[in-house]
Structure to design on (356 residues):
């Protein structure tokens, strides 16, 4: 996953961090969002572009970033995807006795 | 106060669950000021389970890596025992002054300590190596919440983790086998000593029971190895199965997107 080119394939971790941050604060300006997600401003802008195209966030008239319902659902779907796929794995008890 | 709709209730409830403590197989993962939803908690718990299993697989890799050194220690102790028996005790004249019975007890008491020491040193050596493995380094990252759990997943070196588990299997079984051989020597000498002490106390004679110690040892070691090796093979099969599942999961994760 190349995190520098979110338009082709975004880093799920970064996307999840942005959405989680937006879930906590309903509306937030870009600088505050960059701080809370620990992303550089330029990188955040790239991700916001991608998230906007996907319809996961919108930028309101005051320039604040707002999470959409689709964005919230996509995040929830990602959580469910992890539960489903990691949950399918069978973890044996491995004592590795010496 | 109006009634909450189902969706609002779930939302409120989720927000209230500030997961301050996650119990994962007895390990505490304190979630630092992170408010997770219930589903996020479940996902984090599943990932913690995966990480713990990957940590466990590392132990098999260590057993595989140090199996040769363990064998060397055990075999060296057995060689020393044989040398001690043939050269030092039989030819040096150190014990010729003792009677045949006294010589027997003296020789066996001394000889038995050598393979015991070698096996104990070997096991302790491997245990020290296993204990030196750094496990649970992911706990701090995981405690930061679901996005960090995703980061952990994306940073796992799947190929090396998978290969380690797979190659570690052979060494793990061989380790059990070498330990069985060492036990064979120890039990043989211990039984010989025990049975001859018994016959000496009753009949004032040694060597009455002939090769009974030999056959008893074979029986005991056979039962031990059957149980031990079947358990080890079972674990290896479980790792192999996990190996296949992880390969499939890593492929799905690489292709996952929003």
């Amino acid at each position: 996953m190349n995190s520098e080119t979110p338009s082709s394939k975004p880093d799920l971790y970064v996307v999840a961090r942005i959405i989680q941050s937006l879930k906590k604060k309903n509306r937030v300006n870009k600088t505050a969002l960059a701080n809370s997600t620990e992303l550089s401003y330029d990188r955040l802008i790239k991700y916001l572009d991608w998230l906007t195209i996907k319809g996961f966030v919108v930028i309101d008239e005051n320039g604040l970033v707002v999470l959409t319902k689709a964005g919230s659902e996509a995040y929830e779907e990602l959580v469910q995807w992890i539960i489903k796929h990691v949950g399918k794995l069978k973890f044996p008890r491995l004592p590795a006795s010496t | 106060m109006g009634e909450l709709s189902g969706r609002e209730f779930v939302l409120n409830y989720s927000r209230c669950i500030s997961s301050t403590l996650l119990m994962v197989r007895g390990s505490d993962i304190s979630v630092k000021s992170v408010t997770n939803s219930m589903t996020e908690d479940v996902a984090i718990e599943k990932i913690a389970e995966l990480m713990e299993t990957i940590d466990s697989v590392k132990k098999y890799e260590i057993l595989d890596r140090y199996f040769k050194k363990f064998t060397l220690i055990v075999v060296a102790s057995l060689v020393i025992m044989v040398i001690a028996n043939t050269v030092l005790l039989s030819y040096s004249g150190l014990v010729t002054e003792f009677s045949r019975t006294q010589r027997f007890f003296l020789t066996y008491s001394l000889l038995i300590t050598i393979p015991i020491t070698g096996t104990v040193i070997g096991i302790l050596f491997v245990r020290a190596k296993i204990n030196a493995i750094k496990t649970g380094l992911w706990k701090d990252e995981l405690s930061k919440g679901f996005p960090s759990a995703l980061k952990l997943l994306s940073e796992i070196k799947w190929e090396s983790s998978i290969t380690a588990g797979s190659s570690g299997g052979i060494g793990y079984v061989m380790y059990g086998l070498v330990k069985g051989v060492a036990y064979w020597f120890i039990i043989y000498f211990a039984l010989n000593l025990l049975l001859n002490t018994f016959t000496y106390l009753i009949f004032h004679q040694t060597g009455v029971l002939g090769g009974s110690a030999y056959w008893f040892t074979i029986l005991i070691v056979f039962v031990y190895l059957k149980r031990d090796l079947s358990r080890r093979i079972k674990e290896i099969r479980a790792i192999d199965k996990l190996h296949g599942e992880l390969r499939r999961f890593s492929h799905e994760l690489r292709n996952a997107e929003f």
About this structure: The helical segments of chain B are 6-16, 38-91, 100-131, 139-142, 146-155, 158-203, 212-255. Residues 1-33 of chain B have pLDDT under 50 and may be disordered. Chain B has one domain: 8-255. Residues 8-255 of chain B form one domain.
